[in-house]
Amino acid sequence: MNSNTEQVARFKEVLGNYPTGVTVVTTADENGTPVGLTVNSFASVSIDPLLVLWSIDRKVSSFDIFQNTDKFAIHTLADDQAEICTLFASRDIDRFANCEWNLSEHALPIISGSYGVLQCKTFKKVDAGDHLILIGEVIDIEVEKKEPLLYHKRKFGKIPEEFYVTK
Fold first, then answer.
1. The domain containing residue 121 runs over which residues?
2. In what order do the strands lie in the sheet with 42-46?
3. Measured distance CA(34)–CA(81) in Å, rounded
4. In total, how many domains does the chain have?
5. What are phi and psi of 154, to 5 degrees?
6. For the chain, what is the mean pLDDT?
7. Which CATH number belongs to the domain containing residue 141 in this structure?
8. Which GO terms describe its molecular function (predicted)?
9. Which residues pair with 137 in a beta bridge?
10. pLDDT of 137 above 90
11. Backbone angles phi, psi at 4, to 5 degrees
12. Is residue 166 assigned to a domain?
């Protein structure tokens, strides 16, 4: 590569062509005010114990809240929740005033209608360049019988029926 700019552009192209699920991560600040953001950097880590990870950009306005939280909820969105993804990626808007949600028994804001929700206690934080990786130990799991929302080439969708192989 000739320049770092070219390398960054190619990096974004490769990762932008990698289909992912769509998640929203939520927590509450020290006053109990719900906070959340759209995240596509989500992965499983371990089965024993149940661990997952996600990363947050240090420039995000809610960075300090997530950096200091001891728990968070990861919502894997359902195929009918593209507007929730867009809402939680928006700036300068009261995200929770514009969606249905409730407070869980773990005092975490839970968005209604998600495909799955993993409530986690913070297990470890890892510095990683311009991001912080948060590893969470899953303490509660909710699943609804829905299709997951996918993101690919800046578009939302679901897994097409013809994708499934039957025997």
1. 22-149
2. 34-39, 23-28, 71-76, 116-128, 131-143, 51-57, 42-46
3. 19
4. 1
5. 65, 20
6. 92
7. 2.30.110.10
8. FMN binding; riboflavin reductase (NADPH) activity
9. 51, 121
10. yes
11. -65, -35
12. no
Burial class (CB in 10 A: 0-12, 13-18, 19+), 135: middle
Tokens found for residue 151: 């993101």
Strand partners, 55: 133
Average pLDDT over residues 34-57: 96
111-120, 134-143, 147-156: least confidently modelled range:
147-156
CB-facing half-sphere around the CA of 88: CA atoms within 13 A? 27
pTM over 0.85: yes
CB atoms within 10 A of CB 121: 14
Flag whether pLDDT at 1 surpasses 50. Answer: no
Burial, 158: exposed, middle or buried (Cβ in 10 Å; 0-12, 13-18, 19+)? Answer: middle
pLDDT of residue 32: 95
pLDDT at 2 over 70: no
Task: State which H helix or E strand residue 8 sits in.
Answer: helix 4-16
